[in-house]
Amino acid sequence: MKTVLLKLSGKALDNLFVNDSWIKIIKELKDSFDALVIVHGAGAKISEWCQAMGYESKFYNGQRVTDEGTMEIVAAVQAGLLNARLVSRLQTSKINAIGLTGIDNGLFTAEYFNGNLGYVGFPVLSGNKNWLYSIMQNRIVPVFSSVCRDKEGNLMNINADIFAKELAIAIEADTVLFLSDICGVKLSGTLHTVVNETDINEGILTGQITDGMIPKLQSCLELIKHGIHKVWIGNDLSNQNFKELVFEKNLKGTWIVESKTIAG
């Protein structure tokens, strides 16, 4: 089954809620692959709610520090409000969809990163995937928020880029598209249409790649290492031929590749 996983940032979600052109793109993606899976973030909206409720937003290596109170906000905003709004938007646009989290049907169990982050972890596949394949085979779009649980049942905040990466590996996706609020990967002030592991590591080391871009691009590299060779990041998927996604010179955004020789 040829599957595309579309990861939507919080900013991309905001655009999708108000711009019909994004619905058209999602329909084209759905028609171009055997299955479409969506993972969404919620960063800015969570920060807004934290501020409104008196919680300070703190980040460590690009990830949100999450205490118990912040975790409740994460779950309410990401797994509740935004997931429901996205599914509602898709259903209203005649795209059959179902809202899910990493908790559902025991798909993932989270392991803690470290004490600096609180209820933040790494998703580990722990359940049978057949139920998810069944949804996909029936042309229903699974819409995942990245909220998970630990072994004791505590809710866990999972970076949506990391969650998207682990889910894509689990379902053996053909293509992964990170739709964000950035035009692609910039190094030395220049947008690069293709980058590889060396470029990314040097960008992190020299401080050109910072904050949330670090886990995003590290996730991209992990996808490449697991045999998913069509990995893209950018803010514009318009006017693309999704049935023949290749490393074209006129393609917007940035492809993450194992070796630049692949791009020709």
How would you sum up this structure, described in words?
The protein is of the alpha/beta class and 264 residues long. The chain has a single domain, classed as Acetylglutamate kinase-like (Carbamate kinase), CATH 3.40.1160. The protein is 37% helix and 23% strand. It has eight helices and 16 strands. The strands form five sheets. The protein has an eight-stranded mixed beta sheet, with helices on both faces. The protein has a two-stranded antiparallel sheet with strand order 3-4. Helix 1 (10-18) crosses helix 2, helix 3 (43-52) crosses helix 4 and helix 6 packs parallel to helix 8 (213-225). The two termini are 27 Å apart.
Key phrases:
two-stranded antiparallel ribbon; 264 residues; single chain; alpha/beta; Carbamate kinase; 37% helix
